[in-house]
Amino acid sequence: ETTKEHMSFQAEAKQLLKLMIHSLYSNKEIFLRELISNASDAADKLRFEGLTDSALYESDSELKIRVSYNADDRTITIADNGIGMSRQEVIDHIGTIAKSGTREFFNSLTGDQAKDTHLIGQFGVGFYSAFIVADKVTLITRRAGLTVEHGVCWESSGEGEYTLETVEKEMRGTEIILHLRQDEDELLNGHRLRSIIRKYSDHITLPIVMKKEEWSQEDNKNNITDEDETINQASALWTRAKNEITPEQYNEFYKHVGHDFEPPLAYVHARVEGKQEYIQLLYIPSRAPFDMFDREHRHGVKLYVQRVFIMDDAEKLLPNYLRFVRGIIDSNNLPLNVSREILQESKDIETIRAGAVKKVLGLIEELSNSEEEAGKEKFKTFYREFGQVLKEGVGEDYSNRERIAKLLRFISTHNEAADEPAVSLNDYIGRMKAGQEKIYYVTADNLKAARSSPHLEVFRKKDIEVLLLCERVDEWLVTNLAQFEGKSLQSVAKGSLDLGDLEDEVEKQEREKETDEYRDLTERMKSVLDEQVKDVRVTLRLTESPACLVADTHDMSGNLERLLKSAGQ
Ligand code: ADP
Ligand code: MG
User: Fold this and answer.
1) What number does the ligand 1 atom closest to the CA of 125 have?
2) Residue located nearest, by CA, to atom 19 of ligand 1
3) What does the alpha-carbon distance between residue 332 and residue 352 come to, in Å, rounded to a whole number?
4) Of the residues 38, 87, 152, 174, which should be mutated to test ligand 1's pocket, given the most ligand atoms within 8 Å of the CB?
5) Which residues contact 478 (CB under 8 A, 6 or more apart)?
6) N or C: lower Cβ tally within 10 Å for the chain?
7) Is 140 helix (H, G, I), strand (E, B) or coil?
8) How does strand 308-311 pair with strand 301-305?
9) How far apart are CA 435 and CA 430, in angstroms?
10) What pLDDT is stored for residue 419 in this prediction?
11) Any idea which ligand is nearest the CA of 84?
């Protein structure tokens, strides 16, 4: 006996669905891509669990995805024999529209449709894209390993509620039936569906099958036969030769592995031979995900061993500062039963990881060296989205420190109007004054504060460039980057500020003279301020401001002190 339960989505769901349907409508056929992508993930999961529990296959080991349609019922069905879902999994994954970050998402909506469409894509609405073309969706599923009577039927019209019912399901896996909206009849067409599948899902590794159709003179229409035919190439895209993969195929594969609706910014595809044999296909997204600074972010690089999916988001495959990279690494050498624990210690993984880091840094370097306008624009986008995270690498990845530092870009006093980081450390060194030995920087809470720092006065007067550092990560950066190409980095707000050879003889004498002249005053100020200061000195640093605070060479900078205080330390 079964009962139908009525349940509700979270409060925001209805609004989210409406917005999504509206903003994705012009590209509505992506619903099929998303549902096929999920079916493929479900097959990957079954293959992986099947490695240790072959009973899960239930003597049906030919994994595939079936697409069919019924013109009379006006339905399209996507069925897979993958891992399926238990009742609880349906509630968690299908009944909960947006996992983490829903609130942030809604706050970031602008009301500008073009912008919001980008956001929707970035947010990931996978399964729900079914509602672009359907006004009712029925999902019937049974998890592998559970018995026939543990099937679950979920149904919703995308209006804020859904029903849940326990049903019998003979075949394990998931079947999704789309009841098409009025006016969507053009989708009830074998040609149309086949062309959508070839366009968006050709890269899917397992066969996507449909029933063959034959022209019938008698009925004057196509008749659906009983014979299956595979629509896609059904081979792992990354194993194909580069010149056999089109840019569109690379892009569609990215959308699948990256769970993204937008094409990637750049990618690198390489086969590595030698002691460790592996293939890597790594992508840099066009946009930072919402959860980039969230410790529980998901979807990193996927690990495969000999074409078998092993795990998602294997954090050992790339260091933390490259956590925005998506894609796959397919190893020929690792054991199939590799676990997260084994990965922790594996020397093989270290080799693969070092190789992957090299490739990604190489890809970013390529963008940064680009002479063409389009490439330059790409690097700018990259830096805007991921520059902050890349900076973490200077502290995290010792062996690639210089290489990463070369890729960093800053705002500096060289261009007083700039608000996007464009100055590399090499640019800076190229503009150093004769006798200048150090790379000067100032740290502050924001760009405006950095620009108006009194510490800059003498540098402006002498036309010496100073880097303006105002991101949170910058304090961490300068603590970890003492030097670049033999030049040490020096805060303008620290120490006696030995300008070295940049201070001329006249200035030196003048400072000594004034120090003597004002000794009474500085001594008196020091005794009045007592514990609050270490020292009071005469300076030539200031040209307009009467006084400024400086930190001792080895003390924390004022900015870092403020940051730590605000973090409650
Ligand atoms: P994503 O694929 O980015 O996780 P989706 O909205 O596409 O987001 O899917 C949500 C979740 O629903 C999936 O992560 C998966 O757990 C579950 N799911 C969706 N489709 C299937 C399916 N065909 N088989 C098994 N689980 C599925
Ligand atoms: Mg999905």
Assistant:
1) 6
2) 38
3) 11
4) 38
5) 441, 443, 469, 489, 491
6) N
7) strand
8) antiparallel
9) 13
10) 86
11) 1
Which listed ligand is nearest to 78 at the C-alpha? Answer: 1
- Residue scoring higher pLDDT (451 or 519): 451
Residue 140 CA to ligand 2 center (angstroms) comes to 17
Say whether pLDDT at 37 is over 70: yes
Question: What is the Cα 126 distance to its own chain's centre?
Answer: 16
- CA torsion through residues 110, 111, 116, 120, sign: positive
CA distance 209 to 77: 12
**Which percentage of the chain shows pLDDT scores above 70?**
87
Average pLDDT, the chain: 87
148 is in an annotated binding site: no
What is the CB neighbour count within 10 angstroms for residue 26? 8
The amino acid sitting at 153 is: C
In Å, what is the CA distance from 210 to each residue of 226, 230, 430? 10, 7, 63
- Predicted confidence (pLDDT) at residue 497 exceeds the cutoff of 70: no
Question: What's the pLDDT tens digit per position in 370-397?
Answer: 999 999 999 999 999 999 999 999 999 9
Residue where the block lists tokens 């009467």: 546
The Cα–Cα gap between 115 and 31 comes to 20
Q: Is 127 one of the annotated binding-site residues?
A: yes
One-letter amino acid at 321 equals Y
Write the pLDDT tens digit of every residue in 95-108: 876 555 666 666 76
pLDDT in tens, 150-191: 999 999 998 889 999 999 999 999 999 999 999 999 999 999
Q: How many angstroms separate the alpha carbon of residue 127 from the centre of ligand 2?
A: 6
* Rounded-to-integer distance, Cα 457 and Cα 389, Å: 31
For residue 12, the SS3 value is coil
Provide the strand spans (E) within 343-430: 411-412
Nearest-atom number in ligand 1 for the CA of 89 is: 16
Ligand-binding site membership of 386 (annotated) = no
| Protein residue whose Cα sits closest to atom 14 of ligand 1 | 93
**Ligand 1 neighbours by CB, cut-off 6 Å:** 34, 38-39, 42, 80, 82-85, 93-94, 124, 126-127, 174, 259
Query: Rounded to an integer, what distance in angstroms lies between the CA atom of residue 103 and that of residue 12?
Result: 9
Query: What order of strands is seen across the sheet that includes strand 326-331?
Result: 266-272, 278-284, 326-331, 301-305, 308-311
> Under a CB-based contact definition with an 8 Å cutoff, are residues 119 and 260 in contact?
no
Which of 127, 142, 177 best tests ligand 1's pocket when mutated (most atoms within 8 Å of CB)? 127
What residue's CA is closest to ligand 1, atom 12? 93
ipTM > 0.95 (yes/no):
yes
Residue 127: nearest ligand to its CA? 1
Atom of ligand 1 nearest to the CA of 259: 3
Q: Highest-confidence range of 123-132, 222-231, 295-304, by mean pLDDT? A: 222-231
Instruction: Report the amino acid identity of residue 420.
Output: E
